[in-house]
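4.2 Preliminary Data

To establish feasibility before requesting continued support, the project team ran the inverse folding procedure on a target of 71 residues. The structure was first converted into the token representation described in Section 3, and no sequence information of any kind was made available to the design step. The complete token record follows.
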């Protein structure tokens, strides 16, 4: 399940990357519906952060942090 979420995280990050190309360099694909789709950057950025948090919690929930007790 985590592998599928990692792929989705990559897609979200790539869409945010394309948005930044559009904003900073004027890059557009020239396809109206895709350019409009890419303009919803906040949704994809939020989705990336939520999926990243879930992935980290899922992975680290199996860890034993007792070695940190001495710090």
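Position-by-position output of the design step:
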């Amino acid at each position: 399940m985590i592998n599928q979420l990692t792929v989705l995280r990559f897609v979200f990050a790539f869409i945010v990357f394309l948005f930044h190309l559009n904003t900073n360099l004027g890059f557009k694909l020239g396809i109206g519906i895709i350019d409009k789709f890419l303009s919803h950057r906040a949704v994809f950025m939020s989705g990336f952060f939520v999926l990243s948090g879930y992935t980290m919690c899922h992975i680290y929930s199996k860890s034993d942090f007792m070695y940190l007790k001495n710090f």
